[in-house]
Design a protein that fits this description.
By secondary structure, the protein is mostly helical. It is about 35% helix and about 10% strand. The protein has seven helices and four strands. The strands form two sheets. Strands 1-2 form a two-stranded parallel ribbon. The longest helix is centred in the middle third of the chain and has 16 residues. It is globular and about 50 Å long. The protein starts with a strand and ends in a 10-residue tail after the last helix. The mean pLDDT is about 95.
C-alpha cells in the first residue's frame, strides 16, 4: 500500500501531519506529499486568507449551495496525480475517501464524478482496468465511524477541522467539525478530537 497527500496551499498543515501519522500506523510502504499551489486560483476559504471559514451553520444551510470551503476541481487534480502514480506503479486500484455527506455540497464528491473519472483514467492511460474505489461514498458519518472502529482505526490520529488553532485543536464550529461531532454522537463512539475552548 502506498499513500498520497497534497500540500495544495491550504490554510494549515495539521491534515498533512495526520495523513503521515495514519500512513505510518497503517504500515504504508511509501507516503508521498505532492505540492501543488491551488491558491493561485483562489475562491475558497481553505486556500485564501481573506475568505472566512463559515462557522455555526446548521445542516440545512450546509446543503443549500456549494460552500465557500469547496476548492475548485481539487479532487479532479488529486485523482489525476494518483492516476499518474498508479500508471507508473502498474497499479489499477486507487482509493478515495469522499462520502455521501459531501455529495450535496462538493460536486467532486458525487458518485457520478468518481465513475466519470474512472472512465477517463481507462481511456487516457495504459491502465484499462483502472478503478477508483470510493468505499465511503454512500455512508453517513456515523456509518463511516462505526466501520473504522471495526477495522481498528485510531481516530485520535485523524484531523477534519477546516480552521484549527495554532496547536492543531479543532474549532468545533466549522461544517467539518459539526458533521464529525454529529457522526461520533450518532455512532455512539467517544470523539477523541481535541477541540479549542
Amino acid at each position: 500500500m502506498r499513500t498520497m497527500a497534497f500540500d495544495y496551499g491550504q490554510r494549515h498543515r495539521h491534515e498533512l501531519a495526520a495523513a503521515e501519522r495514519i500512513s505510518r500506523a497503517m504500515g504504508a510502504a511509501e507516503h508521498r506529499v505532492v505540492r501543488i499551489d491551488l491558491r493561485q486560483f483562489g475562491n475558497s476559504a481553505l486556500t485564501a486568507d481573506d475568505i472566512t471559514v463559515p462557522k455555526d451553520r446548521d445542516e440545512s444551510q450546509m446543503s443549500t449551495e456549494i460552500p465557500i470551503t469547496y476548492v475548485p476541481a481539487r479532487n479532479t487534480i488529486f485523482l489525476s496525480y494518483a492516476l499518474a502514480w498508479a500508471e507508473v506503479l502498474e497499479c489499477d486500484d486507487v482509493f478515495l475517501g469522499v462520502n455521501a455527506l459531501d455529495y450535496s455540497g462538493y460536486p467532486d464528491c458525487r458518485p457520478e464524478f468518481v465513475e466519470s473519472f474512472q472512465r477517463t483514467g481507462r481511456l487516457g492511460t495504459k491502465r484499462t482496468n483502472f478503478t477508483v474505489h470510493a468505499p465511503l461514498v454512500h455512508l453517513t458519518k456515523a456509518q463511516i465511524i462505526r466501520r473504522g472502529i471495526e477495522l481498528g482505526v485510531d481516530y485520535g490520529l485523524t484531523h477534519s477541522c477546516y480552521d484549527p488553532d495554532a496547536d492543531g485543536r479543532a474549532c468545533g464550529r466549522c461544517d467539518s467539525c459539526v458533521l464529525r461531532q454529529r457522526g461520533f454522537a450518532e455512532a455512539g463512539v467517544p470523539d477523541p478530537t481535541r477541540y479549542a475552548g
